[in-house]
Amino acid sequence: MYRANEERYDFMTYNRCGNRGLKLPAVSLGLWHNFGGVDVLENGRAMLRRAFDLGITHFDLANNYGPPPGSAEENFGKLFKQDFLPYRDELIISTKAGYLMWPGPYGEWGSRKYLLASLDQSLKRMGLDYVDIFYSHRPDPDTPLEETMMALDQAVRSGKALYAGLSNYTADMTRKAASILCDLGTPCLIHQPKYSMFERWVEAGLLDVLEEEGIGCIPFSPLAQGLLTNKYLHGIPEGSRAAKSWGFLKPHQVDPALHKVGKLNLMAQERGQTLAQMALAWILKDRRITSVLIGASSVKQIEDNVETLKNREFSDEELHSIENILRS
Ligand SMILES: NC(=O)c1ccc[n+]([C@@H]2O[C@H](COP(=O)([O-])OP(=O)(O)OC[C@H]3O[C@@H](n4cnc5c(N)ncnc54)[C@H](OP(=O)(O)O)[C@@H]3O)[C@@H](O)[C@H]2O)c1
Fold first, then answer.
1. Which of 101, 124, 314, 327 is surrounded by the fewest CB atoms within 10 Å?
2. How far is the CA of 225 from the centre of ligand 1 (A)?
3. Is the pTM of this model over 0.90?
């Protein structure tokens, strides 16, 4: 039987989500890869346990995580029931709906019909009464924003979610969606955008909107799916995401990144940390960031990533060098 580490709150930093009441750990764990039906359940168990023992109180899911879609939620449900039931009130569990889950016109995007049905399915798969955060996973060009936001508001009012979140919404759409949610009485808690040294669109407006609206920010793929680590410097290792047929990182994406990764890796070594740690610290340096949402395939990676918190400071010179490398 699992008993959580008594010292689990001694090391982690917890940041307030925008100007809301909820705090999230500076490092959160996502279950997009490595928790599906194709993966080893016991490895998932070990990662969830170690994460919680290190103070990671936030686990992020979505209806479609797997493969097959839904299997990450099912596996999480099994592990939650066996290990984490006594700790439910210490955990922030999120899920999302937006991508394809079932056939026909109601199985994806942003209609009220789809979002609320999907949330019910997610709760069933995970064996939960409620999730802490329910996200609209992507904006829907064919559904009025009001309808999607009313579905999020309904999810919260029904008690099936505690907070509402947005993912992959542009700065403009976020401002509009946030205003609708506020009018409905369910302020947007958090935005989940893709953000890393290699993917910086949020710097061109979204982060400003989030700050103005008091919304938190939890960047996903902060390690560019593993590219911003030292793992691909000598080829594509067996078992890595780029080596798996179902992995979202494709082998052809690896080579073009390597000249920058090599230089960044040297800088990280000079700072006395791993490249993964430097890449996470670089995101966390912005006070508008609530948490970095990492993925992992082993306990060791989680440990490595949480160690980031020991060295989060950058000199102006270091930041300048990083910019030069990223522009090279
Ligand atoms: N809202 C959205 O649309 C959306 C989209 C994508 C993801 N997400 C969320 O964001 C989470 C994280 O995304 P992500 O998995 O792409 O994040 P990531 O942190 O950029 O990449 C995770 C991968 O990097 C490698 N890695 C992690 N730590 C490492 C370390 N210390 N040393 C060496 N390699 C390391 C591992 O690759 P290997 O597996 O190769 O070992 C791991 O699977 C997802 O689980 C999901 O919850 C949301």
1. 327
2. 5
3. yes
